[in-house]
Amino acid sequence: MRMKVPWVMLFFGLLVSQAAAQTQLRFVSWRSEAPAVWEQLIAGFEASHPQVKVVREVGPHSSTEFHDLVTQKLRNRDPQMDVFFMDVIWPGEFAAAGWALPLDEFFSTNRQKEFLRAPIEANRYDGRIFGVPLFVDAGMLYFRKDLLAKYQRPPPRTWPELVDSAKLILAQERDPYLTGYSAQFKQYEGLICNMMEFIMGNGAALWDEQQLKSALASGQATQAVRFVRDQIIRTISHRGVLAYQEPESLALFTQGKALFHRNWPYAWEVANDPQRSKVAGRVGVMPLPSFPGHKSVATLGGWQLGISRFSRHPRLAWQFVDYMTSHEAQKQIALATGRGPARAALYRDAEVLAKHPHFSARYETFVLAEPRPRTPVYLPLSNIMQRYFSSAIAIADSNIDQLARVASRDMDRVLDLLRERPRP
Amino acid sequence: MNRSHDPVWRFLAPSVLFVATFSLYPIIDSFRLSFYRMILTLPWLGQKFVGWQNYQDLLGDPVALQSLLTSLTFVAVTTPIEVLLGLAMAVVLNESFRGRGWLRAVMLVPWAIPTVVASQMWRFIFNDRYGLFNFIWFGDATDRYWAPLAEPGLALLSIMVADIWKTSSFAALIILAGLQAIPRELYEAASIDGAGAWQKFRHITFPLVKPALLLALLFRTIDALKVFDLVFVMTQGGPADTTNVLQFYGYKKSFAEGMIGYGSTIAVAVFSLSLIFSLVYIRLLGARLLGREKPA
């Protein structure tokens, strides 16, 4: 027993000397589609900052579950976590709660201009900036080029056109496995993204940002919801889509069992990879349809890097964030993953365009993408809307007007909390 | 003798401390928080004492009442089935036959699998395209395939099936322990008196195993009332909110929405319900079981 004491002392001695020599930066992210590139980039950062060791903590991929993990650390004021991934819907919440460090001191307005406008706006709260965009997402429509060509149908510009083409092709193909439209209609965050595209594509909105009121009960909003229930779910999709998130809906499409598919840009790489997709080379992509007379709307998605207010090394953390969101790093990530970079210049970069020719067409979609409501009470609003949308479309004879009124009343009640804020 | 010098207390201290820190303190703190309005994402609202306001809100919250109903339905359907299946399993496993030890181990497998893993497995089984359930039921007639987790009328039922599969063996385990405590002589005597298998079950096994049955029922009821992981993995409360059990609703309020006060109120409600159920069962179990513990 006595012999152990010097060993223990040696061990702690080493630990202390290690700590003195190196600063650890803990980086909480989910696992990338191209982990090798991330490892390489982090190794590059460590090489240029020999006193820093980046410790990675890999969390779940699902936004909701990742939120649980990160907020758990933040509400406990965990000084261990320095840098973290932030979904595009969180900056308002993290800023108001005092969890995310305001970055204005480091991230000047001029440098912000190098990024796309929509994600920068999403990271702003009360005039300050709380995150640096890493990559952007926007909903897009994928379709089977071969099937549309076979029946001489053009890529659909409007939702009724999409439904007509799907009806025609489903009737002719007589394949019981084939479904017309595969998307994310499960009761979860993705449902908001999908329904918002229908609602805003009909000239309506989820909420009125100025008045802090719900806009779900408007005629145009309920009309869009009714269209999804009657024309999409009941007519051209099978009921299973009501339980689908991204992976299941994409799997259906890559198996060649869906004609149209709504997903984020990453689906392009998967759908065209012969290893993972039976329809590689037969896939088309375009902006989502809208309703006649209205403009197409894509929901803005994407991830940011944020710094914890409780980090002991904010300056080093910023150097790391700056490095990971630099032109060069974003280029590497874009080349490897096909996710849309957040820096505008990369959409004109010859090397990126050579690998992903469709990026130039996507630029417009990304620039025009609409954010979900930017407010610290987004999550309560989201849960109310998820309940409403799911009830409205999953039940064939749902009373949509009544459900919309209830959801609006509940949303207004949550939004009223914001009015109690003392004005500075 | 001075009580504080009694070594009993020194031996008890670690476990008392443990229970106090990890059970008692959180329960008391939940009670305290349920009287406050505290929203993590709106720090300027502060931590305001609101008295019974949260409880009034809870009673007037249609989503909470719906969740309560969903939870109670879940309890009412799953627990009797689980205990009956557990009884059947225990009676079989109490007989001596070749391979009994092996079968006992196999029976416990569902209970030994972590719930999250089992939930994921059932999610695959109920998948509308490649799920085993559809394949067994409909074979190649894919146009008739169901999507149980997408149907408001079937999603809760699917979760109940998963729960029954998962926890019946737990009930069996408790009941088996009860069966083994029954003295062999009673059966021998009954045999001599010419009693058949059913008569033995009816007049010996059942009355003597009743305390174990009620105990299994108590454990299952409390667990079913707090069901969370199955819902979290399989449906996230959907579709149309039909699987939004009370515990899951409380989790969403506390952890996703940061509404600590209201979330605690829901937690207290679940706790109180469990307590009421426990008290009722313990009364039913009677002084007999508890009385046996007392020294004569």
The greatest inter-chain interface is formed by: A-B, 42 and 34 residues
Helical content of chain B stands at: over 70%
User: What would the average pLDDT of chain B be, to the nearest integer?
Assistant: 89
Globular, elongated, flat, extended or rod-shaped: what is the shape of chain A? globular
Average pLDDT of chain A, to the nearest integer?
Answer: 91
- What's the helix count of chain B? 13
- Biggest sheet descriptor of chain A: 6 strands, mixed
| Number of structurally distinct domains of chain B | 1
Task: List low-pLDDT spans of chain A.
Answer: none
Share of β-strand residues of chain B: under 5%
CATH level 1 class label of chain B: Mainly Alpha
What is the general shape of chain B?
globular
Strand order of the largest sheet of chain B: 1-2
Identify the CATH architecture of chain B.
Orthogonal Bundle
The strand count of chain A comes to 14
Uncertain segments of chain B? none
- Main β sheet profile of chain B: 2 strands, antiparallel
Number of strands of chain B: 2
Describe the protein in words:
The complex is a heterodimer of chains A (424) and B (296). With 424 residues, chain A is of the alpha+beta class. Chain A has two domains: 21-137 and 300-368, 3-Layer(aba) Sandwich (D-Maltodextrin-Binding Protein, domain 2), CATH 3.40.190.10; 140-297 and 377-419, D-Maltodextrin-Binding Protein, domain 2 (3-Layer(aba) Sandwich), CATH 3.40.190.10. Helices cover 48% and strands 16% of the residues of chain A. The relative contact order of chain A is 0.17. Chain B has 296 residues and is mainly α. Helices cover 71% and strands 1% of the residues of chain B. Chain B is built from 13 helices and two strands. Chain B has helices at residues 7-33, 53-59, 62-94, 100-107, 109-112, 115-125, 132-138, 155-180, 184-192, 197-225, 229-234, 246-256, 260-291; strands at 36-37, 48-49. In chain B, helix 3 (62-94) packs antiparallel against helix 10, helix 6 crosses helix 8 and helix 12 packs across helix 13. The chains are: A alpha+beta (424), B mainly alpha (296).
